[in-house]
Design goal:
Elements (H helix, E strand, L loop, with lengths): L4 H13 L5 H8 L11 H8 L4 H14 L3 H13 L1 H13 L1 H9 L12 H4 L3 H8 L5 H20 L5 H26 L1 H6 E7 L1 H4 L9 E9 L5 H20 L10 E2 L12 E2 L1 H10 L3 H7 L3 E5 L1 H16 L7 H14 L17 H15 L11 H10 L5 H25 L10 H10 L6 H19 L2 H9 L13 H11 L4 H12 L4 H18 L4 H15 L3 H9 L1 H12 L3 H8 L19 H14 L3 H28 L10 H32 L5 E7 L1 H4 L9 E9 L5 H18 L11 E2 L12 E3 H10 L3 H7 L3 E5 L1 H15 L7 H18 L17 H15 L11 H10 L5 H25 L10 H10 L7 H22 L5
Parallel strand pairs: 2-3, 2-4, 7-8, 7-9
Antiparallel strand pairs: 1-2, 1-5, 6-7, 6-10
Amino acid sequence: MTSAPGRRSSTFTRLLRHGFTDPSAAERLLDSAGLALVRNDPVLLDALGATADPDLALRGLVRLLEAQDGPTARQELLDTLIAAKPLRDRLLGVLGASEALADHLARHPSDWQALVTYEPRDLHPGVEEFERGLAGAGDPVSLRVAYRRCLLSIAARDVCGTIEVAQTAAELADLATATLRAALALAGAAAPEDAALCRLAVIAMGKCGGHELNYVSDVDVVFVGEAVDGADEDKALRAATRLAAHMMRICSETTVEGSIWPVDANLRPEGRNGPLVRTLASHLAYYQRWAKTWEFQALLKARPVAGDLALGEEYVAALQPLVWGAAERENFVADVQKMRRRVVANIPAAEIDRQLKLGPGGLRDVEFAVQLLQLVHGRADASLRSGTTLDALKALAAGGYVGRADAAQLDDAYRFLRSMEHRIQLHRLRRTHLVPEDEADLRRLGRSLDLRTDPVATLTREWKRHASVVRRLHEKLFYRPLLDAVAALAPGEARLSAEAARERLIALGYADPAAALRHLEALASGVTRKAAIQRTLLPVLLGWFADSADPDAGLLTFRKVSDALGKTPWYLRLLRDEGAAAENLARVLSAGRLAPDLLMRAPEAVALLGDGGGGLEPRPRAHLEQEILAAVRRADNAVQGVTAARGVRRRELFRISAADIVGSYGTESQPAEADQGALVDLVGGAVSDLTAATLAGTLRAVVREGWGDTLPTRFAIIGMGRFGGHELGYGSDADVLFVHEPRDGVDEREAAEAAGKVVAEMRRLLQIPSADPPLLIDADLRPEGKSGPLVRTLKSYEAYYRRWSLVWERHALLRAEHVAGDEDLGRRFTELIDPLRYPTAGLDEEAVREIRRLKARMESERLPRGADPKLHAKLGPGGLSDVEWTVQLLQLRHGAREPGLRTTRTRQALAAARAAGLISEDDASTLDEAWVLATRVRNAVMLVRGRAGDTFPTVPRELGAVGRYLGYGPGHAGDMLDAYRRTARRARGVVEELFYGGL
């Protein structure tokens, strides 16, 4: 039918006004024979315009009319459509929201009549009603058709708003239950001899078990089988397995009518590797001995749905005590949170911002948070034992386990996100949790959620808002009620009981929950601004403390820092406003003793943890020297000057240790440093530079007090060992040599006395007991060792080395480097020793044998009695000594002709040896990995225990803290020790070949 131009323009405009995006195509469809008589009916156009996608609804309606069996059937549909508003809203609503259900109606054109009935009992059907709807299905194909017919009625009520999202999810779960029963009946009818041998129970898990299913989702199940009386158990289990597998195929396989949904049994014990069907006793034995934390979390939603329901109830009853005792497992909270992080980490980068279910701020965040709280408190409170997320959240709020306002916000966000998920899946009945990118899809999605004004922009804004709420609350949900337990609450707000708070703190890993509650009360109670800000901060801080090996220490030290700085306005402002500061502080305070001890001696250093205050980047040596020398100039005497220098050293040690901890642990915005060698180099270089600057300042203070601006003798300090190699650790002494040279006209005895006094005074001032850590100076590597003079002239060194130097002294000089004092004298000392440490002719065999004998004697004499050599980071096989002596032997033999080997740094020398072809790339990598790991272990021990050590701690909590620093999660200390042994063993193999057998 052709319209006049004016009329066409009018219809075109009306269609636009009713929400059609392609009015021309819509006008053609309305002109078709099937709709010609009602094309101008305002009722029809209004109904189409009310759908999510009027164009899609109209196309579906035309297809349905064309599919009708003759004019009479077509007219019946049209008459009913115009006359009956319930049908009109339901049918057009489905057609405008679901292309897949429109396809179903086109294939089965009489199924529209399933939407005509509008009785009260049809509004909320349950399992029985759906079973009646599936009753006529005698084969898998007809079961699919009947399933889609039932799904059609659920979708119609959903899109019309007759039922809300939680009811929709419950009905979908009920339909799945009825479908599983029908599929099992078909499987049993196909193999009646198998059905006669066994009792088979189907346990729904996941969203089906929780009565909160999606439109398209895997239906997770577990099977329990038993023999009937008198039957052989093995035969019965094989029969049950055949029935279960057939039932799964009936639901999962694709036929001419498509598939229903996949049935997934991978949540069973041992997953895919375990038997499909087990007896109840076998299930129970597995969960008692082998199950992981996540498996108990999954059992929260276990619900018998098909088969032998009595057996299913026995299964649930038998496992309930294990589920509600899961929170007592070691590292329970950490395991649950680790699982959540692993899920997020596995999302492809291109999808993470579109993930409704798994991404940050998604549905899984709400579900994990609720399940975590259920497992912690459900043992003592049976009201929390619901498998449905929203019901459990409501019960948690009612019991005071979650704040009511938080629960209400999460409930609202969860409903919105689930509604989005439902409508996305409903469109093509495909399993997806990704928000579409196409604007037409977003427009239909927004309109389906009644966002009619600028639907794309409004949908995006609402989605991001709800996701932000979830991100903000899902972790705080666990911690905030702990504060409410010790603080004043608003009227009507339920309080977490003392016992519930204790349970939650124990689950978080607190060893002394009573003390933790006292700290929380001290921090959060009151009406001051300080208490208000800390009430806001503590829920997040508690989570970060719990992510460490010692949350008790973290909370205690935070209280001490807050007590010391709470009245200074910048402190609370720093934690509240600078994103990194609070998390960095939590990491540092709970990682061990060293950094908190350094901080507590001068709490104002907490400012370094923020974005300002210089940050955590170690300062260059020149800047450190400049600051220390300026402080010495301002001091009235040497004691004051060195005290100022030690204060700078303490502050900078805190900066370095904090940077190391944050880099090792990572933060929410910055992952842990993947290059372990970079962290080792950072600490070694920064501590060595700081020690050099401290010695320079101390030297200046001593000389200034005793001699004014000029000492009677030129004086230089030579770094040795790890100091000279830029490899100092937190607990290292400063190995040095002192060298002097009388100035022109100064008597040698006077010069020697002055140099001796300088050394003695420096050592004394750097070890005076104070709030700052001492710096021990070790000069035992000097000529003649402890028997020789502490300080010599350059000529004395030259004479000694020319006549008396031993192999071990030449070896020790490989790491000699000027660090403080007269630069020219230091340079000339270096020129003096270069021919000794890099001999032109290399080493003869006798010298090589002597070095090997020295190393063997050192290991046997210095290894502590009772220590496990395989875990000794310094002297054990494959430890620091092995790697360093191997590299240093290469330097002694080849340094004269290979310039790259003339370095005091182990890793640089190793890289140079590899570049020169003196060691293979694989061997060099093995040695470097072992050296870096052993150095990290020593740094970790010092950070954790507050005192130096070369072996892993034996106290479990300290060992766990070392593991956390090295990148191992809770409960994996054994894996850490195994990895260390493997790495050291490989390195020892290289050392055996190169140090003892080759080179």
